[in-house]
Design goal:
Helix content is about 45%, strand content about 0%. It is mostly helical.
Length: about 60
């Protein structure tokens, strides 16, 4: 019989504090309620999207 092997979970998440406009927080609260996703998850998704689709322009 093979053993049931459990390996430690790799924790890649970190805690970060940011300041945002209250209206933006309220918008994410509403989106969270509509989508049944946590505000944290939605903000993480938005940050990843922004990073993946960002274009940095140099000095002209």
């Amino acid at each position: 019989m093979e053993k049931f092997v459990v390996v430690p979970k790799e924790d890649k998440a970190v805690t970060m504090t940011i300041r945002i406009d209250r209206a933006l927080q309220e918008a994410y609260n509403e989106l969270s309620n509509k989508t049944n996703r946590s505000r944290n998850e939605l903000i993480g998704m938005a940050l990843q999207y922004a990073l993946d689709n960002m274009e940095i322009k140099g000095k002209e």
